[in-house]
Structure formats: C-alpha cells, structure tokens
Amino acid sequence: MKRYIARRLMQGAILLVMVAMIVFFLGRLTGNPVDLMLPEDATAEDREAMIKTLGLDGSVLDQFVIFVTNAVQGDLGRSIRMKQPAVEAFFDRLPNTLIIIPWALLLGMVAGIPLGVMAALNRGGLLDRFAGTVAVLGVAMPSFWLGVLLIFVFSVELGWLPSSRMGGPDHYVLPVITLGTFLVAGFMRITRSAMLEVMESEFVKLARIKGLAETTVIWKHCLRNALIPVLTLWGVFVGNLITGAIVTETVFAWPGIGRLTYEAVIYRDFPLLQAVIILKSILILTINLGVDILYAYVDPRIRLA
Amino acid sequence: MAVVDRPQSALPAAADTPRPFWRSLLTLRGGAGVRRTARVPWIPIVIISVIVVMAVFAPLLAPHSPIDQTLRDKMLPPAWMDGGKAKYLLGTDHFGRDILSRLIHGARVSLLVALLALTAGGGVGLLIGIVSGYVGGKVDAVLMRLVDAAFTFPAILFALLLAVTMGQGLGTLVIAISLLLWASFARVIRGEVLALRQRDFVALAKVRGCSTLRIMLTHILPNVLNTFMVLVTLNIGVVIIAEASLSFLGAGIPPPTPTWGLMISEGRGRIAEAWWVALIPGIAITLLVLSVNLFGDWLRDRLDPRLRQL
Q: How far apart are CA B53 and CA B48, in angstroms?
C-alpha cells in the first residue's frame, strides 16, 4: 500500500512539473513576458523591477529556476487587475466554489443513481427510454446555455429564483442544477450498465433462489456491487466539476474560482491565470490521488497491479 | 476506406446503450418490434445536412450581413411575435444585427473548427495509437503515461491559457481543442492495434520481411480506419460544445465574427428584454450536437459495435 501511494505521489509530482513547465514556457515564448505580467500603465521603473525579480535578463533555465523557487514558496505573481498576490485571490474565492460542488455531486447521485437502477430494471421499457433521452440531451446541451435558459424561465418569467450572485439558499438552486445536470446523465449511464452486469451474476441468482424478497435483492445485493464502478468515477467527476464551474459561475456571477478564471481570461490577467491553472491542477491531482488511494484501500487488486 | 458490414449476429447482446424513446419517432421505418437492424437516422441526417449547407453557402443564404449594424432595428423580436418584422425572421440583437444571418454564419465557424480540430487532434491520436500499440515496450509505456496525464489534466485550462498568451484566433482554438481530443483517440486506437498485432496477416507480413513502418501503414492503418471514423463522428459534438464554451468565455474566435457561443454570451445580459438573442443559438447547438451524436451512435453500431462501451 505504501509503495502504491509513493508511486502515485511520484506520478502526480511529475505531472505538476509538466504543468508548471507548460505555463512557464507559454508565458515566455510569446513576445515579451513583461507585457504579459504588468498593467499597461506600468512605469519604466516597474518594468526594471519586474525584469530583476523574474531574472528576465538571465537564461531561460535561470528564469525557470526562479519561477519554480517562487512558486514553491507560494508566490505565483501579482494579479494585474486585483492588485493583490494571485495566490491570495485564489484562496479568497476557493470556498465559494467548494461550497457548491458537493451539492452538484449530490444532485447527480440522488437523481442519477435511482434513474439508472430503474432504467436497468425496466430495460427496453418506457422508463429506460426516458433515461436514455435524459442522457442524450444532457450531453447535447451546453451547460452555459442551460444556465441562461434556467435564468430566463425561473428568474425572468416566473420570478421564483434569483439569477445571480451568492446569498440565501435560493441562490444555490439554479447554479447547482446547471453544474450538476451532466452528472445526472453520467451517474445514470454508469449505474445502469453496472446494474445490468451485476444482475446477471451468480450471487444474485443465489439470492433469488434463497427466496429473498426482490427489493432486498435489487437494492442490497445488486446496487451495492454496482456502486463500485460508480464511485471510482468520483475523481473524474470532481475534476469535471471544477472545470465546469468556470462557465456556470460565469453565467450566475458566482464569486468562486471558476468566475476568477473567466475574469483572468477576459481581462488578460496573465499572472492570475497562471496561478489559477497551477493551483487548480494541484487541486484536481490531489482529489484524484485521494480517490485512487481510497479505491486501492477498498480493492486490493488495484494496488497490486 | 473499406467499409465492412459485420453480420448482425456479431453484435454483443449485453452491452447496449439506452435507447431514447423518441428515437423510434425520429426514424421512419418500423415500430418497437422490428428493432433488429439499426435503422438509418433520417431526421438527424436531414438536420446535419441543412446545417452543413447553411455553413457552406452562408454568404448566399444569409438574408442580411452578420456584422453590419442597423441600430434603428435593434432588439426586434422574431417575426412571429408582436413587434417583429418579416425581414428579420429570428429577430435582431442589441446592435440590430439579424440573428438568422449570424446563426447561418456561426454554423461556418462551428463546423470549420470541428473539421480542423478533428483532423489535427484525431490524426495525432491515430498516429500515437498505432505507434504505441504496434511498437509496444518502452515507447508504449511512455506514450500511455502521456495519455493518462492528458486525461487527468483538464484541457479547457490549457485552451484558456493559449488564448491569453497566443491571442485569440482560429489557430489557437484548433490547437486548444486538438489537445482535448488526441488522448481519447490514442487510447482507443491503441487497444484496437494491440488486438490486430496478434493476427496472422501481421505475422505473415513480418515473415515476408515487411518493415515496421510498412506494416503499420499498409496492414494496421486500414484496419483501424473504421474505428477512427466512428471516433471522429462521436467527437464532433464534443468539439462543437468545446468551441461554443470557449467562445462564450471570450477565448474563441474574436468578435465581430459571429459564433454561436459568442451570441449566447452577448445575449445573456439582456435575457429579460430579448430572450431570442441568447436562446436561439443554444437551440441550434443542441440540435446539431444531438443530431451528430445520434448519427454517430448509428454509425458505431454499423461499423464497430465493440465501441459501445464508450
């Protein structure tokens, strides 16, 4: 188990170095990094200072060493627009995103898993086809458009729910639906195929032969085992949610890290964007690592492979 | 490309995907009983054809300029609503630009980006998949690590980074979306090649002294083309949504060129006064993606049913 964790940590570290290199080189390759890092009204002294601190008069390798040294110490540059360290801006906004992600996951599971189970039980029936439609539509609709549509229906026309910013519980409804819809389709599909597979297995037949009630067989024997592949996808889903939050938070003016990413892009705030990308990578890698370790802990076949 | 019809009995029985209930409505022949043969999805094909024709002949078909502003006619509702004008069938936006014309020209961008990104990203994935699967060993190990890495890391962040550092434009957009695609192509193609490598005709080619490159090009490549075509079709929707999302986030083709994502982005702030500006392009995206996905499902069932698990 320790060896498995060590190996995964190593892989994560390599990946992170790759991300840092890509961010660094994209920042240097294109013209003048000073222009990318400083506001347009920067003075000549500001430019001199920037060249000094980033070692821009030295070789690229030296510059990279400075970049990594600063990054390890938690310095990823100053946001041009927000006039504060980019890392600080990120951590100020992070809680606002972390607060909606569990709700979106919950929505995906609460709606998706039972729908998947019922679709599997009703294979080929009306409910199965309804579930299939949900899955196909969930993939075809761009989530930012779904958000705009929800605002139009529930905020503008019906006036039931607020359309933007944070606030009371009613502010959560539309962003969570927008963010969680693709998960409903995802959880539904996986649960359905996992259920179909488990329902064919020997131990389910045995449970039936023993004369157990059908509900016990379905919900206790089948679903429990079908949930294993569902849970492995958690890591992937959380990663998707973090990137999905970019458009969702943009639509709902939700002050999280997704909206921060959008602001960094439209205001061409390169230091902020580079910090956001590196920190988000760390976040996603950590979550994936956590899920993998948890899964290896539950299923010995994985850590031995 | 050799399109080999597999006998229907070769279809795996267990691994099916849910069939949307209205799919039987969308197809012309047969009822619930006669679902053995995959029916041709005519309605999706018609929708795709209409949009392709729109894109190709955009300047001829669009009733107005997609860019010129007519401020006198701004925010007019669609023609069938009160206050709409017949000459603006789907209404106008806040600059008085015709929504229908922008929609028609926007189809161009979506399809052009899809074509280029699928050629570039899919091509790279195909190449890596073949090399990785056929050469094997250390090359395979390294390439597959890269594929794993690409899966872990969200490509949309790279796309945004590229847009800021390299500037917005078609080239940046195509590179960014290709980065999103290559890994999944490489992984599936590699799997196919691993199976092909064991086949007798490959062994025979080796015995006859064919070089590795020759075997990959003349024996492996033609046999994965079906899979490749299926992957391309199934990914058109992914690309269209990615392009729209990037345009929406201000990292796509820069304005004033009309794109569907940009239209939604421009319209969403005025949703209370003019819903058509933001909602109509989204309907277009959903219809197109739905159609290519249904068409892709059908193509997969025809050409390569083993890919159903995807």
A: 9
Task: Tell me which amino acid residue A196 is.
Answer: L
Distance (Å, rounded) from C-alpha B107 to C-alpha B240? 10
Compute the mean pLDDT over every residue in chain B, rounded to the nearest whole number: 81
For chains A and B, CB pairs below 8 A equal 161
**CA A143 – CA A157 distance, rounded (Å):** 20
Residue B278 in any domain: the answer is yes
Give exposure, A153-173, as e/b (b: 16+ Cβ within 10 Å): ebbeeeeebbbeebeeeebbe
pLDDT of the residue at A207 = 83
Sort out which chain B residues have CB atoms less than 8 A from A288's CB and list them: 152
Does B159 map to a domain? yes
Per-residue pLDDT at A220: 78
Counted residue by residue, chain A has a size of 305
* CB-CB contact of A38 with A51 (8 Å): no
Tokens found for residue A134: 């949900």
Please judge whether B157 and A281 are an interchain contact, meaning their C-beta atoms are less than 8 angstroms apart. yes
Q: How confident is the model at residue A107 (pLDDT cuts 50, 70, 90)?
A: very high
Q: Does the beta-carbon distance from B165 to A26 stay under 8 Å?
A: yes
> What residues make up the domain containing B261?
71-308
Do B245 and A142 lie within an 8 Å CB cutoff? yes
Residue A40 has pLDDT above 80, yes or no: no
Instruction: Encode pLDDT of A118-167 as tens digits.
Output: 888 888 788 888 888 888 888 888 988 999 999 888 888 887 887 777 77
Q: Which residues from A are below 8 Å from B278, CB to CB?
A: 145, 148, 152
Number of domains in chain B: 1
CB-CB neighbours of B1 under 10 Å: 9
- The Cα–Cα gap between A49 and A43 comes to 10
Express each pLDDT in A164-207 by its tens digit: 777 777 888 889 999 988 888 888 888 888 888 888 888 888 88
CATH no. for residue B303?
A: 1.10.3720.10
pLDDT score of B5 more than 50 = no
Task: Look up the ipTM and state it.
Answer: 0.84
Question: CB–CB of B294 and A136 under 8 A?
Answer: yes
Torsion of CA A247, A252, A256, A257, to 10 degrees: 20
Q: What is the pTM of this model?
A: 0.83
Q: Is residue B197 part of a domain?
A: yes
Residue B57 in any domain: the answer is no
CA–CA distances in Å: residue A175 to residues A284, B74, B274 = 21, 30, 22
